[in-house]
Amino acid sequence: MKQTRVLMGMPITVEIVDAKATAATFDTVFEYFRYVDETFSTYKDTSEITAINKGVLPQEKWSADMKLIFALAEKTRVETNGFFDIRTAGDRYDPSGIVKGWAIWKAAEILKNDGFENFYIDAGGDIQPHGLNAKRKKWAVGIKNPWNEQENVKIVHVTTEGVATSGTYIRGHHIYDPKHGNRPVDEIVSLTVIGPNIYEADRFATAAFAMGREAINFIEHLDGFEGYMIDKEKTATLTSGFERYTIPGIKK
Amino acid sequence: MKKYVIAGILVVAIAGYLIFTNSKSTPVAANTPSGGTNGTSSNGTPGTTTSTDMGGMVMGHYKDGTYTGPVTDAVYGKIQVAVTIANSMITSVDVPVYPTDGGHTQQVSATAIPTLKQEAIAAQSAQVDIVSGATQTSQGFMQSLASALAQAKA
To answer: Do A219 and A147 lie in a common domain?
Structure first.
């Protein structure tokens, strides 16, 4: 069974291979994303993060999840030399860069705790698989061609690893020039990170992408992570262990 | 297997827009002015219309022309959407301003690493279960799109 809904400003797809999945199973997963959106969306006047940004919610009244996200964001900021930071220029907090991967991972935990073995959750191209697909094979994940939405340029095979891609906004064959700074972030177009789970893969994909061409070196140095970086010359750079994911038959 | 074509992105954006506008209780004037360079803040009210107006969009009640929404906060930076209407139908959605980084200026310290393998990207024909790619629909995208469409209302 497979369902897609638009939540948190993106399409979220859940596919469950296990026969015991019901409509209620999907409702539970999507309800969790709705809760996350209601709590962490800076676009909602009623969200907890908006109350914090307005200065009307003192820290001792923050929810446990909010405190956790701030702690995880700070951990990530330190681990990425400041390239990841939920503090915005306007002295506000925007935790969406860490909430997304965390929410996908937590939603997958809900399914696992309910006894589901074979499924994936895909939120806007960031993916948490589990188990095997309907053909009893590893999940085949295509890395999208940034210049052609209908094409994959690489296929990786995963079971429980998270796969996250960060990229610039591209339409047709044109890459828009960046509006700020002289840093070569525009040199790279797409960075896919495979990590122990989608929370880990997504936070490092997000942070590393902001590093420009150094991104792939950063991922290379992270134990347990592999990366595939596409630059504007349409050249891909692979971390040294990436290719073990490209062969379906090889166990990692 | 699913693959997002450009049209798919639009459909998703519009679907999301519908949900987004339906969740708003405050009607907004149809002629939202262009936000220029520094428009809506992320928690401000976007230039939304009612879902009835969205029906108008689908049926084609917009004036021809190109309309640009305000620069809006997206997940990793600013985003701005421009929509072109021809024969009362949306013919293109462009993104003149898009998020590229977190606004940071730090340099990554160069570290000695082994030379990594490189390859030219090439289309793969094998079937896949899932596709990983950069998220191209965001609430910032939808907000700016909504404002651009509000300007196009006849």
So the answer is: yes
pLDDT digits (tens, 9 = 90+) for B113-142: 458 999 999 999 889 999 998 865 455 566
Q: Is A115 left (phi over 0), alpha (psi -120 to 50) or beta?
A: left
Which chain A residues contact residue B142 at CB under 8 A?
9
Number of compact structural domains in chain B? 1
Q: What is the pLDDT of residue A224?
A: 96
Could you give the C-alpha distances from A97 to A176, B94, B106, in angstroms and in order? 22, 24, 18
Interface contacts (A, B; CB < 8 Å):
222
- Write down the pTM of the prediction: 0.68
A195: domain range? 138-252
Whether A125 and A16 share a structural domain: yes
Residue B95 contacts residue B80 (beta carbons within 8 Å): yes
Q: Tens of pLDDT along A98-117?
A: 999 999 999 999 999 999 99
Spatial CB neighbours of A56, under 8 Å, sequence gap ≥ 6: none
